[in-house]
UniProtKB/TrEMBL annotation:
The protein, known as: Alpha/beta hydrolase
Top-level division of the source organism's lineage: Bacteria
GO molecular function: triacylglycerol lipase activity
Residue ranges occupied by any Alpha/beta hydrolase fold-3 domain in the UniProt entry: 80-281
Amino acid sequence: MTPPEKVREHLAAWAQSATGLVEALQGKEAVDWNEARSTYDRAMAELFPAPEGISIAETLLNDIPACSITPDEIKENRTLFYIHGGGYASGSPKGYLGLAGRLALLLRAKAYIPDYRLAPQHCFPIPIDDVVRAYRAVIDLGHDPRSIIIAGDSAGGAMVVTLMRKLRDGGLPLPAVGFAMSPWANLTHTGRSMRTREHLDPACTPEFLTLLAQNFLGNALPTDPDASPVYADVCGLPPVLIHIGENELMLSDAIRLAAHLGENRVRVSLEVWPGMFHVWHLFAGVLPEADEALGNAVSWLEGVLSRVNA
């Protein structure tokens, strides 16, 4: 499937905005990490702008900077905790207001996006620890865990599962449900699709993912269960919805994650979208499949929430 022209233009601009990040990951001395990240964030905000019908504010979740999103219409105490992607090296709440904002609107949920610290300045497990602290702050604000949805994309999609594990192990209140979009769930990159989809996914290359993994892990192993949830103990977690595109490098590992969850008695739903690429949900409003995917997700999440709160 060839994406529509406007989508191709957005993909090209998205890739161009990451040039500085690639050079920084390659160790080029002239590259400034802060400048590279700022360039990427500006492009994300321009390409995937926040929708109308929401209010945005800066806040703190414990000591973690964050953005809050308040739709004009909110349902009861419903809360969305959104973990942005970016390979643990880039991304910020302001760059993901488009996707998180649309999801919050559809769910009619108050949303929080933590601005967790990034590698290589803050390697594994610091980004994960930041997300755990931010979630604890949301609970401390009085939000009912039975009405909380944890969602994320790419690295954030993997952290959806990791965060729930950390909460379980710490005896903290679990959310009602998780939603992982294009999860980067296996940093060993041993899935078959890393080879078979190498020239099909316009958003990623195996070489880029290898650089990102090395940048994030520091001295940790890629098989560490906190880095790669396909190796983790996932027993007792809430239901999880996984979306992955047919053309994604991460396809095989997303399927493996879904199987791993199911084999450990976690209710899981996996949707493989024909012809889609990494985190195509960002293109809602431009790509019909992105709007359809978000609509499908909201219907599934609503069903889980109804049963949890019956």
